[in-house]
Amino acid sequence: MLVDPEKCTGCQQCLIACSMKHHGNVNPHLAMIKILRLESQKLNIPVICMACDDAPCIKVCPMNARVRQTNGTVVTNTDVCISCRACVYICPVGSPVVNPYTDQTMTCDMCKDDEAGPWCVIACREGAMRVCESDALAKGVARERAGRSRAIYPNN
Amino acid sequence: MKVVIIGNGIAGNQVALSLRERAKETEICILSAETVPEYDPCSLPYFLGGSIEKKDVFKKNIEDYQQLNIDIMFNSKVVSIAPEAKCVTTDKGLEIGYDKLVLAHGGDLFIPPIEGIRNAGVFSCKQMVETEKLESHNGCRAVVIGSGAIGIEAAEALKKKGYEVHIIELLGWILPVLFDEPTARRLEAAMERHGIHVHTGEKVLRIKGDTKVTGVVTDKREIECDTVVVATGVVPGTALAKTALIETGRGIQVNRKMETTVSDIYACGDCVETFDSCTDEVVMFQLKHNAIEQAQIVAKNILGDNIKYLGAYAFARVHFFNTHAATFGKTMRATECLLGKSELIEKESGKDYLRVVLLDGKVIGGQAIGKYADAIGLFIGAMWRKDDMDRLRGKWNKIPQSGAAYSWPLIRLGQIIGPAAHG
Prior knowledge:
The structure holds two protein chains of two kinds.
Chain A: E1 2-3, H1 13-23, E2 34-38, E3 43-47, H2 56-60, E4 66-68, E5 74-76, H3 86-90, E6 97-98, E7 105-106, H4 119-123, E8 129-130, H5 134-152
Antiparallel strand pairs in A: 1-8, 2-3, 4-5, 6-7
Chain B: E1 2-6, H1 10-22, E2 27-31, H2 44-48, H3 62-67, E3 70-73, E4 78-82, E5 87-90, E6 95-97, E7 100-103, E8 107-109, E9 122-124, H4 128-136, E10 141-145, H5 149-160, E11 164-169, H6 181-193, E12 196-200, E13 204-208, E14 215-218, E15 222-224, E16 227-230, E17 234-236, H7 239-243, E18 252-253, E19 265-267, E20 272-275, E21 282-283, H8 288-302, E22 315-320, E23 323-329, H9 332-335, E24 342-349, E25 352-359, E26 362-369, H10 376-385, H11 389-395, H12 404-417
Parallel strand pairs in B: 1-2, 1-7, 2-3, 7-19, 9-16, 10-11, 10-16, 11-12, 18-20
Antiparallel strand pairs in B: 4-5, 5-6, 8-17, 13-14, 14-15, 20-21, 22-23, 23-26, 24-25, 25-26
C-alpha cells in the first residue's frame, strides 16, 4: 500500500469505505485508518498499520492477540484482546485504532478476503492510496525523484 | 544437532519456534519445571480479574509441540549442568546430552523475609499454579505487597473481583522502577479515585495470624485482611548456572550474542542481565518483548549467524478502568547518575501528562498519561532511531512539503514537544 499525503485532501472517503467494509456501518470512528492533519505543512496523512517485519506490537501484547495473517498484515484477535492498549503505545506510528464501542484495537487487514482489493483504495478519488508491488514502488519513486531533480537543476 | 532448552516460558518457546522455522531437522528438547504447556505470565492478572478464561492464558497446547516436532518434558527441573560432558541432570536423576544448551528458566519470585510470609492466605501472581490458588480463594480484603507491574495488575484484578485492596510500597512512589515521581503520583491519585488504597514509603513488618492471615502490620499502620499478594519482584535464577561455573552477576552474564561465559551455552529471558539499548549499562528489564528479542538472537546464533543483540529497553503500560498510562526507556531518576546532559520535557493539559527524558539531545525514555500516551509510540520510534531532538526542534516546521510523507512522525514529534525552551 502506497500512501501519498500530497494528494490526500482529508475527505474521509477511505474512512467511510473502511468502516462499511469491516463493520457494515458508515462511521469514521470505526475505520482502521486515521487521518492526521498537519496544519503547518498543509498535509493530510492517512496513517495505516505498516505491518512491520519485526512488529513490536506482537511482542508486547500480553494476550498474544496481535496475529500476523497469511497476507502479511497484523490484526488484533478480538476474541482475546483485553483492551490494554499496549499495541497503541508501542506502535512507532501510532496506527492502531481503538474501537470506541468495544475499546479493543483494530488495524488494517488490506481487506484480505476481498478480491477487488482494499476498499479505501477504491474509494479514494484523489489517488492518494495505491496498492503496488515493492519493485514497482522503488522504480516509480526513482523515476519521480529523477524528474524532480531535473526540475530543480535543469542544466544537469 | 541437539538443542536442549531449559525453561518452557516465553523465551524458551521463542528459541524453539525460531529454530524450527529455519532448521527442520534439528532436534529440540524443552525441559519444563512446571506441568502445563506454555502460557503467558503477562495475562495471568486478567485471568485473575475474570476478564478472560483460563484457556486464553495458554499460548500452546500439547499437540502444538508434537506438530512442531519439539520434545517437551514436564516436571523436569534441571539441577546441574556438566559442560565438559555436555549433559544436564534433572531432579529425577535423568541425564540428557546436548550440543547447544539454552538457559531460559527465568526468574524466581523474590520472597522477602517477613514474619508470617508462609501463612495460608499469602499468594503470588507470577506462576500459573499460584495464580490459580489465588483465583479460587474466597476473601474480601486484600493487601498487595510491592507495586511493580505485577502488583498493580494484581491489585486491579482483585478490585474487579470485589475485594477491598491496599497496596504497600516500600519506596517513595508506586512503580518506582518504571515511573518517575510526578507520573506515579498522578497514577496514585487515579487509583485512589477507583477505591484502591495506596500506601507508599511504608515497610511491612509482619503478617499477622497463626496459620491463616488476619492482617498486615507496617511501620505506620495495621491493616486487617484475609488475603496477601506478594509482588516484590523477580530475581533471576542463577543457581543452576553456577553449577556449570558460568559467571553471574545479578543475573547470568551474557555477551552481545547472548552466549554465557561457557561455550555452547546460551541464555535469554528473565534469568540474564543484558545491556541497555541507549546507554550500554548492564541492566535487567524482565519484560516480555526483551525475552522474545533475546530468544530470536539466541536462535540465530545457534544456527551460525553472527547477530548481535542491540540491547534491552523497558516498555510497560498500566491502566485502571479508564486511566491509561505508558512508559518506556529510562526514568529521570535512572538518568541522573549518567554522564552527559540530561533534559526533561514536560507537557500537561488537564488529566493528560507527558514526560520525555533526553540525554545529549536523544530520547532515552518517557512516560505519558491519557491522550499523550496515544502518541508515545512516536517517541519510542525516536529512541530506536536515536533521532537528534535538538536538531528536530529547530527544524521540524521547516521540513519541506514534498517528501514529508517520510518524515511525518518527525513533524508530529516536533509539534508535540514544541520549540526548545532555551531557544
